[in-house]
Amino acid sequence: MADTALLVIDVQNIYELPDSPLCVPGFKQSLGRINRLVEGFEAAGEPVIYVRHVHRADGRDAGRMFDFSGAAEPVGFVDGSAEAEYVPGLRIVPDGLHMTKHRYSCFEGTELEAILRSLGVKTVAICGYMTNFCCETTARAAHDKDYFVNFIADATGAPDLGEEYRQSAIIQAVCATLGAGFARILTTEEYLQAMR
């Protein structure tokens, strides 16, 4: 797994809070797998890059994030708010890199690509939240920028989209598409075994 960076995407309180509309079912289990990946990368001496989604309270940096359908919604992920902070249980490595973003893709409007190039990274491993938004969008963008992409499916999560479309179906659909032309799809255990 040389020349690989782990992207830990949006492991923020908004996805764990029970009263949040974005609460992820089984959050503690997916967080445990994310932490195992972080520990594996730390032990291997490979870079870990933490990304948080944040916005200004006035929404000037939000673009179409909260009015994509034409109707404005309240701005979320406000910088400095409790919902936008890292989940307390997230494993933070001392030499991890930290960055923020304002769009679904970790590449859009950020220094991520410059960081990856400076580190000599050729492959990104993706984990975090949400499977079908920031994780999937980042995987597609990384592929388009000619990185190899490893999508660690069970170390991602997403809120259910209504009664008929649950998290498991969302992850399955995302993986079917990404696996057909964008990324290698692996479980946490498969990935950690390959690192040993």
TrEMBL record:
UniProt xrefs under InterPro entries: Isochorismatase-like_dom, Isochorismatase-like_hydrls, Isochorismatase-like_sf
Residues annotated as domain Isochorismatase-like: 4-189
Coiled coil: none
GO MF assignments: hydrolase activity
Keyword vocabulary terms for this entry: Hydrolase
CDD domains on file: cysteine_hydrolases
PANTHER family: PEROXYUREIDOACRYLATE/UREIDOACRYLATE AMIDOHYDROLASE-RELATED (PTHR43540)
Name the UniProt record assigns to this protein: Benzamide amidohydrolase
